[in-house]
Amino acid sequence: MKIAYKTEKGIFYNGTIEKALDSKKFDKYKGKVNLIFTSPPFPLNRKKKYGNLQGEEYIKWLSELAPLFGDCLAEDGSIVMEVGNSWEPGVPVMSTLALKSLLEFLEKGGLHLCQQFVWNNPAKLPSPAQWVNVKRNRVKDSFTYFWWMSKTPYPKADNRKVLVEYSKSMKNLLKNKKYNSGNRPSEHNIGEKSFLKNNKGAIPSNVITAANTQSNTMYQKYCKKNNLQPHPARMPASLPEFFIKFLTDENDLILDPFGGSNTTGMVAEELNRNWISVEPNEDYILGSKGRFKS
Q1: Distance between CA 272 and CA 253 in Å, rounded?
Q2: Domain range summary for the chain, segments of one domain joined by +
Q3: Prior bond to 40 cis, omega within 30?
Q4: Of 88, 91, 85, which is closest to residue 135 (Cα–Cα)?
Q5: Going by fewer Cβ within 10 Å, which terminus of the chain is more open, N or C?
Q6: What is the pLDDT of residue 140?
Q7: pLDDT tens-digit series, residues 86-115
Q8: What is the Rg, in whole angstroms, of the alpha carbon atoms belonging to the chain?
Q9: CA 48 – CA 57 distance, rounded (Å)
Q10: Using an 8 Å Cβ cutoff, are 172 and 81 in contact?
Q11: CA 29, CA 182: separation in Å to the nearest integer?
């Protein structure tokens, strides 16, 4: 493991996360990471350039990282990990690998599942192509899960940091100070003042819609200028931004064990957090430098 580059707030290591966590260089981070935010390789049927395991081998590999991640976490820290859907080879049947991986990861790490989030990507290409485009017997698979986990049932979290703009109807309600209170068919009793307090925004749901359609970012321009292949599985910056704001404070420490093109590090730096990323692919690391102003 070696240092690829540093910025004002972070450091990018070139190597595998297994070697990084086994290195004495990482001892200083043990128990100090406030958020591990990452997207490991998915258990896909087709091999990708960034590497991906399959079947029981995938479950074993991912679950064995859980206690190592737990050692890095602060007591009130969180792990947020994206795991996508996978399908059984040759048939239009979804694999349960993602669910099995989650259960094994939680058990091996002694972790709590705080909440599941869904990332809905409306711009995602139709897949699996064989069943969606050719046979036409399935619909487009356009979402992935984000699992929020922690060592304690009460990790650091504050949804007031991620409030969203009120709807037009809510703005009118607050303006007119009138609400149809009383009993509902659901047997809930809504008080007259329950919805008349202005909290400066609405609490977001655990479904996040974000399209990954940007084609002219600073990162992509840098890759093109330097003849570098962009990472094939980049996520929108709005995803790490949401969780970093929600689960950390300024100057906290963020770790991305599968750094890729380092979207996590870039967003952490913009939000005045410290960050560490780890990535074995040197080409991805070279391209990631384009996310930071020189």
Answers
A1: 10
A2: 2-159+205-287, 165-202
A3: no
A4: 91
A5: C
A6: 94
A7: 888 899 999 898 899 999 999 999 999 999
A8: 21
A9: 16
A10: no
A11: 53
As a whole number of Å, the end-to-end CA separation of the chain is 24
Give CA angle at 32 (80, 147), nearest 5°.
Answer: 10
Tell me if residue 255 falls in helix, strand or coil: strand
Over residues 144-154, mean pLDDT: 97
Q: What is the mean pLDDT of the chain?
A: 89
Which residue's entry shows tokens 């487009």?
140
| Residues 67 and 110 sit within 8 Å (Cβ to Cβ) | yes
User: Helix and strand tally (H, E) in the chain?
Assistant: 9, 11
Q: Are 35 and 255 in contact (CB under 8 A)?
A: yes
On whether the CB atoms of residues 63 and 104 are closer than 8 A, the answer is: yes
Q: Are 200 and 163 in contact (CB under 8 A)?
A: yes
Does residue 214 register a pLDDT over 90? no
100, 105, 111, 114 alpha-carbon torsion, rounded to 10°: -50
Alpha-carbon dihedral angle through residues 205, 119, 69, 65, given to the nearest 10 degrees: 140
Helix (H, G, I), strand (E, B) or coil at 105: helix
DSSP 8-class letter at 202: B
Residue 207 CA to residue 277 CA, distance in Å, equals 26
Enter the pTM of the model.
Answer: 0.90
Q: What is the CATH number of domain 2-159+205-287?
A: 3.40.50.150
Cα–Cα–Cα angle for 262, 263, 268, nearest 5°? Answer: 100
